[in-house]
Recover the amino acids of this structure.
């Protein structure tokens, strides 16, 4: 009886995983392209006072959009998340809250900053409760892309960790200028589109801890195999580049936009994003309409 139940549980989990993957695969264009484009327009509209009050910086819409764009990464990684990985990610979650609260209260290590809007419920009235949803996927995206791009070099822990930490900091070179531009948070002063150098020193510190925990969480070989076989697992990074890269372009943050372009090159170098795949991801009715024109 117990064996049957356990076996049935495994079958059910596999069926659920397959269903999730089918939904993501069938809606890649909507998730990875439509959602970030709408998100960029909504955030810019909020920053410029062009939206009605119920839509302006609506936290529910922000959280919902973020969850949808994160879904390819989450679904892609689910088969590789066991108890050990869950424990490491749990530690990373606790660390994420801790370092942000320290940063808010002491101005270390990021420099003096504050949230200028509420990104959903706030923990202790200071940091967003959904902070891990915003931060941890960025670290995971940087790590997974690093594994793919480095190839055999990823076997060397010095190269792997150094490159992944650099990728995390590069992600913030895109994120923070755009987030400041649309009013998510603000620094007292900054030389890089309103962002101080101290912020990136802080990201080196927090990114190092985060990358080490992610590296400990997974078996690199089996994770790399999963990344190679799951075509949509990095679609969240595509969404990130489209959302924050386009906002940087709109506000003339040219260096930040160029860094987003480097991530585009990195994604294309993985041989999973080309014109044919992009076309295949477009829903059939839309492809037909475009073809008729």
């Amino acid at each position: 009886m117990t064996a049957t139940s356990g076996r049935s549980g495994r079958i059910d989990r596999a069926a659920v995983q397959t269903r999730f993957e089918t939904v993501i695969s069938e809606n890649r264009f909507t998730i990875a392209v439509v959602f970030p484009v709408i998100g960029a327009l909504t955030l810019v509209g909020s920053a410029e006072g062009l939206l009605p009050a119920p839509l302006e910086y609506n936290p529910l819409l922000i959280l919902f959009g973020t969850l949808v764009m994160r879904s390819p990464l989450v679904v892609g990684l689910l088969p590789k998340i066991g108890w050990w990985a869950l424990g490491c990610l749990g530690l990373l979650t606790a660390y994420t809250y801790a370092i942000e609260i320290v940063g808010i209260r002491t101005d270390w290590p990021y420099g003096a900053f504050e949230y200028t809007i509420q990104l959903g419920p706030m923990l202790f009235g200071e940091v967003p409760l959904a902070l891990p949803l915003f931060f941890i996927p960025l670290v995971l995206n940087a790590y997974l892309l690093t594994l793919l791009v480095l190839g055999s070099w990823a076997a060397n822990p010095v190269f792997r960790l150094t490159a992944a930490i650099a990728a995390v900091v590069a992600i913030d070179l895109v994120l923070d200028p755009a987030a400041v531009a649309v009013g998510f948070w603000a620094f007292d002063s900054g030389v890089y589109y309103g962002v101080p150098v101290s912020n990136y020193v802080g990201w080196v510190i927090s990114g190092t801890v985060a990358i080490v925990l992610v590296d400990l969480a997974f078996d690199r070989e089996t994770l790399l195999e999963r990344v190679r076989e799951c075509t949509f697992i990095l679609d969240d990074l595509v969404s990130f580049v489209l959302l924050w890269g386009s906002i940087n372009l709109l506000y003339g943050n040219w260096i930040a936009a160029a860094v987003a372009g480097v991530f585009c090159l990195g994604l294309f170098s993985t041989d999973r994003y080309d014109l044919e795949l992009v076309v295949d991801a477009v829903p059939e009715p839309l492809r037909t309409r475009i073809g008729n024109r």
Observations:
- Residues 2-26 form the longest helix (25 residues).
- The chain has one domain: 2-292.
- The CA atoms of residues 30 and 74 lie 17 Å apart.
- The longest strand covers residues 113-115.
